[in-house]
Amino acid sequence: MTALRVGQVRPVVCAAPEYLRRREGPNHPREPAGHALIAAGGLGAGPDWRFGSGADALSVQVQPRLVTTTIDAAIEAPC
To answer: Mind listing the pLDDT tens digit for each residue in 66-77?
Structure first.
């Protein structure tokens, strides 16, 4: 067997416009607490969201109200 890379996924943080109309969005990556977070990921999904890279990286511990294994399920989840 041979492993072959077929693609790459870049994680993003986003919010539904309706959610942002009802609540003031976070102004910094350190401010996810108190927000209704939904996380989508496979086996590598964990309780920390990492912003940036190298020495400037910021790791923020999160507690999503829902964790899905597919992006489609995360998109369809109610905000």
So the answer is: 888 888 898 888
